[in-house]
C-alpha cells in the first residue's frame, strides 16, 4: 500500500504514540482489503465508549490520556445513558457517572459530543464526494445514499480515522463499488417514516449486502423517510448504500438498471414486516418508544402535534429519543412542553436497546446494573423492533407513529392495519 510522507511520519511517531497506533491499525486494515493507498477524510462518526462495559470507557480514556486528539470534525455515536437525566430513565448512578467519564475523554480529544445515531440532524452534514468514516450503519447509508459522501461500515476504525484524518481506499471509497447491484421495483405505497423503515427492512432482506436501485416510488421521499428507509436496509441486510434516481448523487432520474437482478417489494412485504414484529400482547405493553433513529426536529414537531392535549395512559411510559441539538431546538420552539404535559419523556444520548435494558452480554458486575427490560415495547421503527427483539429479548409491537401515540394514550395496541388511508 502506497503511503504519503505524513502517513509514514505518523507511523514513525512524529505526532505521538496514540496517533502512531491509530495509523498502524489503519495500515493493517488497508492491507487486509488490498487498498492501494489512503484517502483524506473530512469527518468521522465514532464510538462513544459504552458504559455498560467498563473496559470500553477505559479504552477511550486511555487514548485521550495518551495524547490522542481528533484531526477532523468528529461526532460521537449513541451511549448507554442519558447523561443529562439518567435517573429519570431508571439507570443507576454507577452507569451514568461512568458514561460521563467517556464524555469527558471525548471532549479532551476534541470530539463533538453528540452521542447520537443521527449526527446529521445535529449539524454534521458531510458533502458530495467527501470521504468519511462511520461506526454507525445508519450514518453510513445516509451519507452514501442521500449526501453522496463516501463511507464504509467501519467499527472502531472510525476513531483511528478521526485521529489521523486518513482512511484506506477500499469498499465504497472506490467508484466501481458504488454502482447498483439489484433493481428493486417498489409497488407498495409507503407513507411516513414507519412505512419507509419497513420498506427498507424488506429491501435489506431481499438484497443482503447489495446496493439496491429503487424504482417506482410514488413520490420523492422526505429526508426523514430516506433516513428511515436506509436504517431499515442496514438492519435487515448489510446495505451501506442505496440509489434513488434523482436523489442519490450523482445518479440521474433516467437510471434504469438494465441487466441487474430484479426484486419487487409490494404491499404484502410491508405488512409482513409490521406483523412479524407485532408479537407482544395488545394490552400488555409498558413502554412506547418513538424516535429510532434519533428524531429530527421535523419529527419532534409531529410528536408534539400528536400529543398536544392528550395524556399517556396509566402504567405506560412513553420515550421520545433524539440528540442534544434537536432537544435544544425543540425546547426553544416550545415543543417539549406539550410532550411533557402529555406524560411523555424526551430522552437524549441513548435509547432502549443501548441503555441499562441491554443484556446481550454481561455488563461489568461492579456497575450494579441488573437488566430489567419492559414486558413489551411498542415502537414505530423496524430497526428498533429488530434490536429490541434480538438484544434485550423483549416482545415488540410495531405500528405507525400516529398509531403508536394512539396506543400510548389508550393503553391498547393500534396496528397499522387500522390506519385510515
Automatic annotation (TrEMBL):
GO terms for molecular function: lyase activity. The keyword Iron applies. It comes from the Bacteria. Residues 1-400 form the Phosphomevalonate dehydratase large subunit-like domain. Signal peptide: none annotated. InterPro entries: PMDh-L-like_dom. It holds the Pfam family AcnX. The keyword Cytoplasm does not apply. Keywords: Iron, Lyase. PANTHER family: DUF521 DOMAIN PROTEIN (AFU_ORTHOLOGUE AFUA_6G00490). This is Phosphomevalonate dehydratase large subunit-like domain-containing protein. It comes from Salipiger pallidus. The lineage of its organism: Bacteria, Pseudomonadati, Pseudomonadota, Alphaproteobacteria, Rhodobacterales.
Amino acid at each position: 500500500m502506497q503511503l504519503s510522507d505524513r502517513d509514514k511520519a505518523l507511523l514513525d511517531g512524529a505526532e505521538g504514540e496514540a496517533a502512531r497506533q491509530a495509523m498502524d491499525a489503519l495500515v493493517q486494515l488497508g492491507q487486509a482489503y488490498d487498498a492501494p493507498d489512503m484517502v483524506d477524510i473530512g469527518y468521522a462518526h465514532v464510538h462513544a465508549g459504552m458504559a455498560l462495559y467498563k473496559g470500553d470507557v477505559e479504552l477511550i480514556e486511555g487514548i485521550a490520556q495518551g495524547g490522542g486528539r481528533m484531526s477532523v470534525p468528529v461526532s460521537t455515536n449513541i451511549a448507554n445513558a442519558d447523561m443529562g437525566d439518567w435517573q429519570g430513565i431508571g439507570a443507576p448512578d454507577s452507569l451514568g457517572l461512568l458514561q460521563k467519564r467517556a464524555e469527558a475523554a471525548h471532549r479532551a480529544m476534541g470530539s463533538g459530543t453528540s452521542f447520537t445515531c443521527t449526527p446529521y440532524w445535529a449539524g454534521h452534514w458531510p458533502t458530495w464526494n467527501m470521504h468519511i468514516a462511520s461506526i454507525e450503519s445508519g450514518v453510513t447509508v445516509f451519507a452514501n445514499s442521500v449526501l453522496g459522501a463516501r463511507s464504509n461500515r467501519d467499527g472502531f476504525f472510525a476513531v483511528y480515522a478521526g485521529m489521523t484524518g486518513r482512511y484506506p481506499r477500499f469498499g465504497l471509497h472506490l467508484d466501481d463499488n458504488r454502482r447498483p447491484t439489484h433493481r428493486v421495483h417498489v409497488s407498495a405505497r409507503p407513507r411516513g417514516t414507519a412505512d419507509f423503515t419497513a420498506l427498507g427492512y424488506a429491501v435489506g432482506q431481499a438484497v443482503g449486502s447489495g446496493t439496491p436501485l429503487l424504482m417506482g416510488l410514488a413520490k420523492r421521499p422526505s429526508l426523514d423517510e430516506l433516513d428511515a428507509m436506509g436504517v431499515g436496509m442496514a438492519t435487515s441486510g448489510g446495505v451501506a448504500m442505496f440509489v434513488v434516481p434523482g436523489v442519490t448523487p450523482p445518479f440521474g432520474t433516467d437510471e434504469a438498471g438494465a441487466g441487474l437482478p430484479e426484486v419487487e417489494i409490494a404491499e404484502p412485504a410491508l405488512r409482513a414486516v409490521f406483523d412479524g414484529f407485532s408479537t407482544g400482547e395488545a394490552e400488555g405493553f409498558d413502554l412506547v418508544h418513538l424516535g429510532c433513529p434519533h428524531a429530527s426536529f421535523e419529527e419532534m414537531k409531529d410528536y408534539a402535534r400528536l400529543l398536544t392535549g392528550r395524556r399517556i395512559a396509566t402504567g405506560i411510559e412513553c420515550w421520545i429519543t433524539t440528540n442534544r441539538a434537536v432537544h435544544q431546538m425543540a425546547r426553544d420552539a416550545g415543543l417539549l412542553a406539550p410532550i411533557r404535559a402529555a406524560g411523555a419523556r424526551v430522552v437524549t444520548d441513548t435509547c432502549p436497546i443501548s441503555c441499562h435494558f441491554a443484556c446481550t452480554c454481561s455488563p461489568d458486575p461492579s456497575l450494579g446494573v441488573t437488566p430489567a427490560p419492559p414486558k413489551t415495547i411498542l415502537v414505530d421503527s423496524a430497526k428498533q423492533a429488530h434490536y429490541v427483539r434480538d438484544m434485550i429479548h423483549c416482545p415488540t409491537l410495531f405500528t405507525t407513529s400516529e398509531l403508536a401515540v394512539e396506543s400510548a394514550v389508550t393503553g391498547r395496541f393500534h396496528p397499522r392495519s387500522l390506519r385510515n388511508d
